[in-house]
Amino acid sequence: MKKTVLIISSVLLNVTFILMFIFLQSDKSDEQIKITLLKDQLYLEQQKNKQYDEDFSKAEFNKEGNLKSQRLIGKNEELIERYYYDDGKIKMEKTFVKSNPYEEIEYYRNGNLKTFTHYEKQNLVHIFEYWPNGQIKSQGKKIRRNGKNDVWHGRWIWYNQDGTLWQEKTY
């Protein structure tokens, strides 16, 4: 149980630092994105010491004894699903609040963040993608349609691998 809380705290701290980096990198004219990021950061900070209901939490292990997947049920109608690489490193984490998707975090094998997706509404998502070196790759919103045929929405920004601006487009 203590190990799970430590892992969760570590992941949440990493996400917090990434969100702070994005906040500092974002265009100052887009105040709504900044407000949303600050709200997300506050939510993640509140989750650091959260306890999970062990009676309903589940885990699957691979042949080597490493975690394959894990399901944690929170006290406040929150569900976290984690999926792991064969070596035990976190591959993806999905968070649901009151049975609705809240966020998805995907990691590269090296542990760096690959994709951070925040559900603003049921079908509107704010997506941040990262290069394997940890630099931001793109950010923008999409309208999800049954998991297929997503529609680009609003302003999208793409970056080079060194973090410099490559392209910006509004849909």
How would the blueprint of this fold be written?
Elements: H1 2-25, H2 31-47, E1 58-61, E2 67-73, E3 78-84, E4 90-97, E5 100-107, E6 113-119, E7 124-130, E8 136-143, E9 151-159, E10 165-170
Antiparallel strand pairs: 1-2, 2-3, 3-4, 4-5, 5-6, 6-7, 7-8, 8-9, 9-10
Helix pairs in contact: 1-2
Please outline what is shown here.
This protein is α+β, with helices and mostly antiparallel strands and 171 residues long. It has two helices and ten strands.
Sheet-strand content, in percent, reads 35-45%
Classification by helices and strands: alpha+beta
Ranges where pLDDT stays below 50 over 5 or more residues in a row are: none
What characterizes the major β-sheet?
Answer: 10 strands, antiparallel
Q: Give the overall average pLDDT.
A: 77
| Whole-angstrom Rg | 16 Å
Alpha-carbon distance between the two ends: 45 Å
Tell me roughly what share of residues is in helical segments: 10-25%
Principal-axis shape equals: globular
Distinct helical segment count: 2
Major sheet strand order: 1-2-3-4-5-6-7-8-9-10
Order of helices and strands: HHEEEEEEEEEE
Q: What's the number of extended β-strand segments?
A: 10
